[in-house]
Specification:
Elements lengths: L1 H18 L8 H31 L1 H60 L2 H8 L13
Helix pairs in contact: 2-3
Length: about 140
């Protein structure tokens, strides 16, 4: 029980920290998707139950038809919501990967300046300007 309360406190403090992060370095939407998904499921259940109730008020046969179709409709609605949320997650993960690639490119550009420094080292110029010898043991045909 104490561990659960500690976890809830950590989650709440992380939520508040991300909510008031004006640099937008972390994505709040990803953290909120489970709550949104649960809300959508409850809303879909309520919508289907309301439609079945309305159908029974209108006609007994229509109510039975809607009652038989309700599980299928519920599965379709929840599946569409799930696919939409998974699409959002993929988009956010692509954005995170692009951020990482930009950071990697910046690192490579900083390291590419080391080539200029290496060409100034005397023995390194000798290594770069050394002609390739065609009589090396690996290239000779015996």
């Amino acid at each position: 029980m104490i561990n659960l309360l500690r976890q809830m406190y950590r989650d709440t403090s992380a939520y508040i920290r991300v909510l008031f992060d004006f640099s937008f370095t972390d994505y709040l939407t990803i953290q909120m998707l489970p709550l949104f998904y649960g809300t959508i499921i409850i809303a879909c259940l309520g919508l289907v139950a309301y439609q079945v109730l309305e159908a029974f008020i209108h006609s007994m046969w229509m109510g039975l038809l809607f009652l038989l179709a309700a599980p299928f409709a519920l599965l379709v609605l929840i599946s569409v919501a799930r696919a939409l949320f998974e699409f959002y997650i993929v988009i956010f993960r692509i954005a995170e990967n692009v951020d990482e690639l930009v950071q990697l490119r910046d690192s490579v550009e900083r390291l590419s300046g080391l080539g200029d420094m290496a060409s100034r080292i005397p023995f390194w110029r000798l290594m770069l300007n050394r002609p390739k010898n065609s009589d090396t043991p690996s290239s000779r045909k015996e």
